[in-house]
Write a structure and sequence with these properties.
The chain is mostly helical and 237 residues long. The chain has ten helices and no strands. Helix 3 packs antiparallel against helix 4.
Length: 237
Amino acid sequence: MDLPISFSKPITDFDVKKLHQLNWEWICWLRTLRQKLENGESLNDGILMESAIEYFSKFQRKDGFINLSDSYAMPSDARVDFIYIPTVVACSIVNLLGSTNRQPQAERFLKKTLPATAGRNFRGSGYDGSKYMAFFIELFAWGNLLPTLINSELTNLSFHKTLFNCYRDFTQEVLNPKEKRSWGDINTTWASHCLQLMNSECNNWPLLQSSPIWPEFARLFEYRDLVTTMNSGQENE
């Protein structure tokens, strides 16, 4: 079955433009699936599920991480974009495809892959660390994964601790907002939004529709695509 993706295997030679394109395509794929679900379309398609897991397996390492590149040798900020984010997105996509009737292959995939997503405690690299923590929670929410993460045998104690620490940090920001912020700090609006997502016991779709986080990261990826294009001297396709 054809998938809405341009690349069928890991990107070679650390082609940053292609890596950003593939990363963004996966994120858009996740959003499209969730929108279809909210529009009443059934995602309970065993063939699509098998195709997605087979596709993701081409990028997956033995330790569970999913790497868009054919090499792990890259700067730490690049590992966030091309390993950690894709690992979260892949889990969210598989969870959506199995949202009606979780199939054994989906369970196996999630059990292997979910613990890897917490390898950096859901944080980015350097100054943007806290912002990425919020974005990871947002991506989990798009995949309807947050309820599963909080009460699940698919993850481990270390993962649950990381999730709890995120909740604690968001709560501290809401209760005691910082008067002076450092570059990259999460703001109170973002923290409150993440807490609502993590506390939601019903459909979180209205919260996602009014997300203060998504537009910021959309601009971030568009900016990176522009920078990559300028550096490569090619047209922005």
